Write the structure tokens for this entry.
Amino acid sequence: MRARIRSGRGGAIYLALAVFFAVAPASATAAAGGAAWPERPDPQGTPTRVSIGIYVLDVIDIDDPNQEYTADIFVRLRWRDVRLAIEDGETLPVSRAMPVSTIWTPELAALNRRDVNALLPERVRVDPRGEVTYEQRYFGTFGARLDLREYPADTQTLEVRVVSYRYSPDELELEIDPRSGLRPEPSVSGWRLEAGEPEPEPLLGPSGVRHFAGVTFRLTAKRDVAHYVLSVALPLLLIAGMAWSVFWIPPQFLPSQTSVATASVFTLIAFRFSVTLRLPEISYLTRADQFLLAVTFLVFGALGTAILTGRLAKTGREERAHTVDRWARWIYLAALLIVGFWGLS
């Protein structure tokens, strides 16, 4: 559980996997200083059963731009190693502590960990029957593949992908501890979290031939839309409403019309920059982008209509300019209501 992995993206995924499987075993062996039993406690052909439990103590932050989340996680591993059992006649404590470096371990690591620190000493407890218990608390950031197409009404899956960098599913059988889960009321703001169903998920290695034993623990995170409505949707609708006022200004006052419409455009552009800073650089439009784009079309439409009616009034066609304004104000209002209902739903 000690190896560090920093997630790669895009075309670097296979490179990251290659580094993970090439470097992790070597670093683990070096850290151990030569384990007493480097081989599994079970004979060839019999998988070693390891119980794994992950309990998420807290989720502190979900970072959209960096595609990661910060969590406080407690991990418990259990397996049996008969080589550590107390022989008859020996008098030892019911449970004894041993350094991790002196015994065999399943050599597990979180594949999507980025900057994670272990907070407890690296040791295990062993009972007289050879039952080994490893407990560790980790705090740090984990990578997350966020699908933001429905942002801000999106639901994300946060994973902790645990993989053995040495053993295949035929050699290591990972059993999920039923006590795994999520502590109620995590401190992250703007999200509602629920514990998902963990499941075994072997990982195909870089060679494309061998699989490695693994299990994935998941959290379901649903974004709180209320914050978006108050901080994004309503201000956008107010900007669009300001642009609507140009249809109530007589066409003869073209400078006043264009001033209001232009102010709406500049306000919208500045607001768009503040919204895009909340998201990573992605190749698709989110729902918020579509809403912002629809409001942009409305505001620029109001500016174009103001220029048109001002031009009509200047060339002596004031009656036609008033007719355009009367039709435009209700068409614009209907379009604004439709966009607002869609954006707030």
